[in-house]
Amino acid sequence: MAIPYRQEVLRKMVHLSSLWMPFALFYLPWQFNVIMFGTFAVLNVLIEIAVFHGVPGVTPLYKKLFGKMARESEPGKFRFSGAPPMYASACLTALCFSHRVAACAFAILILSDTSAALIGRKWGRHRFFNGKSLEGSLAFLLSGWIIAAGFCLAGGYSNAVLAVWLLGVAVSCVAEFFNEQIHLDDNFTIPLMFGAVAEFLPLLLQ
After folding, report:
1. Distances (CA, A) of 65 to 39, 58, 137
2. 199: closest CA among 167, 158, 165?
3. What is the pLDDT of residues 80-139, one digit of tens each?
4. Of residues 186, 93, 111, the one with CA closest to residue 147
5. What are the angstrom distances between the C-alpha of 117 and each of 2, 5, 183?
6. How many structural domains is the chain composed of?
7. In this structure, how many other beta carbons lie within 10 angstroms of the beta carbon of residue 134?
8. How far apart are CA 129 and CA 131, in angstroms?
9. Which of 53, 82, 85, 86 is CA-nearest to residue 69?
10. β-bridge mates for residue 133, sequence order
11. Which domain holds residue 143?
12. What DSSP designation does 19 have?
C-alpha cells in the first residue's frame, strides 16, 4: 500500500540527508569507505532484526526516530528498510569503481531517486503496470543526466565518455523502474548499474 505523500516527503528528506555519501566516496580513501560502509551495513542489519524481534531499548528508539517514515510490512513478515542495501551498495561501489564514478553513482541515487518519487507521486498522470509514472521516470532520467554531465565536465572527460555515462543513467533508471519486479532494492541496484556501465563500458570500447 502506498504511503501518504507527506510521509513520502519525510522519507526522501532522510534520503537527501545521505548527500554526505558522494563526498565521502569522492574524497576519502576507498579502503576507508569499504570498511566504513560495510560496517554501517552490518550494524543496520542487526538493528533492524532487533527491531523486528522487539528487543527492549532498541525497538522503541528506532520506532520513535523512523517509525513515521517506514513503509508498512505485512504483519509477521520481516522486510529491510532502504538503509542496509544502500550501505552495502556504497561498500561495493567504493570497492569496484573509481572515486568519480562512485560519487556520481550515489549523487544519482540520492537526487534522481528523490526527484522520481516526489514528482511521480505529485504530478504523475501516466501510470505504468507497476504503478510507476512516466513523469517520475523522466524526472529521474533528466536529473541523472544533469548530474552525470556535471561530473564529466568537472573531470574533463571526452564526449564519448559522457555518452557512456548518460547510457549508465538510463540503465539505472530501468533498475529503478523495475525494482519491485526484480525484488532488489533500488538503493542497491541504481549505483551498481550506473557504475558498471560508466566504469567498464569505456574499457570495452577501447
Report:
1. 21, 11, 30
2. 165
3. 888 899 999 999 999 999 999 999 999 999 999 999 989 988 898 999 988 899 999 999
4. 111
5. 12, 10, 18
6. 1
7. 13
8. 6
9. 82
10. 127
11. 5-205
12. G
